[in-house]
Amino acid sequence: MAAPVDHGQALAKVEREGACRNCGSASDLWPVYTVGAEKQNEPWHELSALLWVHPDAVVPLCAECRQLRSRGRLSLLDLLTEEEQNNAVRAAGGILPAVKALVMKGGN
Ligand SMILES: [Zn+2]
User: Fewer CB atoms inside 10 A, N or C side of the chain?
Assistant: First the structure.
């Protein structure tokens, strides 16, 4: 069984920014992982089975841009903050896998 995942901070970030990182739309926003989700969820602490989504692991995208992204037709490379870039490099295990994952569909 998969561990429960807390998206609270990721959702709060999307709400705070209030616009799609790609097109600027303010409607139907989703937190979308920059690189592979399974690599970015972290335990709350060493004794907890609950995972949490680091806010730097996601960017807000509208439903339309999220679909483009899931089809591998939207690169996130130019859309990330410095913190998000650093987080993606760490989570992907290097700059080259991070760039590949950001340009193509996340995590592959
Ligand atoms: Zn959009």
Answer: N
